[in-house]
Amino acid sequence: MRIATAAYPLDWFEGWAAFEAKMTGWVAEAAGEGADLLVFPEYGAMELASLAGAQVAGDTGGAIAAVSERVGAMDALLAALALRFKVHILGPSAPVEEGGLVVNRARLFAPSGVSDYQDKQIMTRFERDDWGVSGGGPLKLFDTALGKIGVLICYDSEFPLLARALVEAGAEIILVPSCTEALEGYWRVRIGAMARALEGQCVCVMASLVGDRPEVYAVEENTGMGGIFGPPDMGFPPTGVIAEGSLGQAGWTYGEVTLDAIRAVRADGHVLNAAHWAEQGPRVALVTESALA
Predict the structure, then answer these.
(1) What pTM did the predictor assign?
(2) What pLDDT score does 71 carry?
(3) Which fold would CATH assign to domain 2-284?
């Protein structure tokens, strides 16, 4: 399959038609390049706050409410685009108000018209302390025509047990939509994504927000680029980097991925990280203290 992952800049819209035109243009471009799976970043939907005006978009609670109110319309648009262009799309994640909580939710759309969502599991300090966003529903494994896909939203990729649960459930591709303010944040998520690809002998696809949008709360500054990572082993690049964009440069990054390569390296790679994972448990239990002072 051909995967397109976004370095996505936030815009300011005067009306819904402008957002619809932008999203249609992005999807059409990737589909025109032969992409089967398109990945948008975490909090990419925050640009919808602009539709409520500057005062609301710049306010903590106002921005969340404004975006949450428009998630249904965004989902309908992306579902129609997935059907029209015959592609799978992981839409930009959004803060969604549900049951008295706010969760960070990304939805995966199939060209058949079916969709489902993944909520972020573990919140960053900013999300939990300043923004009041909570961990949402459980991890899901999406069984698609492209293979079995999991989603770890940004910070979630830095926790190996989450990825391991997806791998044990059968995940072959893990999508990592991200929103990182500074360069160190980008590298934390990228290192996490690459480590999860190594441990699970799978492919991890990272999308990023890029550029500045000072008018919108929580996404004022954004650093990153698109990247597609695999295990540095047989059938994959020796660096593990299948494709990467340019830091801060908006646009799609494309990479070719085959399920056969993932399955082959898991079955008979130079190392077998995925299969040997269980050997850690007994050895961790045997840790002893040795005084050398």
Answers:
(1) 0.97
(2) 98
(3) Nitrilase/N-carbamoyl-D-aminoacid amidohydrolase (3.60.110)
